[in-house]
Amino acid sequence: MLVSVLLGSAGSNGLTNYLDRRIDAMMKRTRGRALPSGRIHPQQKVLPLILGLIIIALILAWMLHPLCFVAGFIGVISSAIWRKTISCTFLGIIAGCSPVLIGWLAIKPVFSLELLLMCCLVAIWTPIHVWSVMLANKEDYIGAGLSYFPLGFRDKTVVKMLFGLSILLYLTALLMYRFGNFDLFYLVVANILSILMIYANARMLFSTTPLAAWKVYKLSAFPYLGIIFIAMCLDILLL
Question: pLDDT tens for residues 124-147?
């Protein structure tokens, strides 16, 4: 399961980098990546490795359970289509839920409320993560010819949406505690991280600056979702 998720995530990430290589080359934030910077030339050299990783991951997913294969296949497709469009965030939600589904269905091939709540965490977290980095680098995105949401909207409008999503994220984390049979350890970690997320988004209500948006992005990039899932695992081990 671990190898399947690791290889599938690596392959999908490589595929998105390949598909976005031309736009990445026009943006200050991404032009240093391996493909747009020319460190890999010709760029097509990465395709056999990328496709090989994805194929191996999907074969392993099938060996785990057919439902794992379906989740992985949908995740790969979602990460690859309609790149850099308004659909990107919503397709990212589907792709982001794919590893969660594979992990759950490999151990317990039954859909449940706990699985739904974990996917809801990913679904609410994704726009906070994506839109905050777009706000932080708005001029960079616009300079590359991109204009999809939230780039064409007033910053204040987007910030209000992010603040609302941060509250919804907190409520979902609490519901995860209520219905996921977790103990005090998870509850403490979820509260601390969620309050920090709300605070970071609340600051943008009064100061819509690239730095404030970047702090929200960095908070979401690993500390929030990564530690939340680690806390779930540790909480179970500590029971």
Answer: 999 999 999 999 999 999 999 999
What span, in angstroms and rounded, lies between the C-alpha atoms of 123 and 172? 10
CB 217 within 8 A of CB 201: no
d(CA 218, CA 129): 8
Q: How many CB atoms lie within 10 A of CB 113?
A: 12
Q: Give CA–CA dist 160/25, Å, rounded.
A: 31
Rg (CA), the chain: 19
Maximum separation of any 2 CA atoms in the chain, in Å: 53
Cα(first)–Cα(last) distance of the chain, in Å? 23
Contact 116, 180 (CB under 8 A): no
Task: Give the span between the Cα atoms of 118 and 179, in whole angstroms.
Answer: 11
Round to whole Å and give the CA distance between 7 and 98. Answer: 13
Rounded average pLDDT over 216-235? 93
The number of CA neighbours under 13 Å toward the Cβ of 146 is 24
Residue 221 has pLDDT above 90, yes or no: no
Tokens found for residue 151: 């780039």
Q: Over the stretch 87-118, which tens digit does the pLDDT of each residue have? A: 999 999 999 999 999 999 999 999 999 999 99
